[in-house]
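Bit of a strange request maybe. I'm writing a small parser for structure token strings and I need a real example to test against, not something I typed by hand. Could someone generate the tokens for this chain?
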Amino acid sequence: QVQLVESGGGLVQAGGSLRLSCAASGITFRTNAMAWYRQAPGKQRELVATIISGGGEIYAGSVKGRFTISRDIAKNMMYLEMNSLKPEDTAVYYCHASNYWGRGTQVTVSS
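Reply from user aminoacidic:
Good idea to test on real output. This should exercise your parser:
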């Protein structure tokens, strides 16, 4: 049974930082592309950052230079380091790997 469990969300002031974590079971991050998505109220879910096969990283333009995606293969964990947060980063953030989704973690950035 595949499970992806996000953690690390919360309320932070604009300019602050948060680190999201995604713990995987039943699937290995070594051989699968993985990604962080987010969905703000009233908006479609959008790709935030992804690690593609071969280890390359792709970021949405709105977060490039502020967010960093990483993984710890030994621990089967994925992370999203978010710096210089803005109110428009407020959303539920989801972990995604091999067609599986986590339940999400809420990030709220106050102005």
